[in-house]
Specification:
Layout lengths: L1 H32 L1 E5 L5 E6 L4 E6 L1 H6 L2 H36 L4
Antiparallel strand pairs: 1-2, 2-3
Helix pairs in contact: 1-3
Length: 109
């Protein structure tokens, strides 16, 4: 009898793993096409970053073009890109959080 219970438990566990793998792949596909906007503190530069790491748009305020030299403008772009990447990381964490919470709450975790 114990071998049947063991087999049933293993099959249930394998099914749960397959379901989780499918969820992970779905979330990864969603994140790859997701876009977020990052910006500088004063909104002089805004960048759109896609979940696959591509920067797909850079918008620079005319005031920043007038008032900034090349180095300062580069720093603003870098700040906006880093903000966009941070926001994408946060969005990814938020998408995976329900799975992580469920896994931690599952029996035997």
């Amino acid at each position: 009898m114990e071998s049947i219970d063991f087999s049933t438990n293993v099959n249930a566990l394998m099914e749960r793993i397959r379901d989780q793998q499918a969820d992970i792949e779905r979330i990864q596909r969603e994140l790859e096409v997701m876009e977020v906007v990052g910006a500088t503190r004063e909104d002089e530069v805004r960048v759109t970053v896609r979940g696959n790491g591509q920067v797909v748009a850079v918008d620079i305020d005319e005031r920043a073009l007038r008032d900034s030299d090349a180095y300062e403008l580069g720093q603003l772009v870098k700040e906006a890109v880093n903000d966009g990447l941070r926001r994408m990381t946060e969005a990814g964490s938020a998408k995976f959080k329900p799975m992580i919470d469920a896994a931690q709450a599952a029996p035997g975790s």
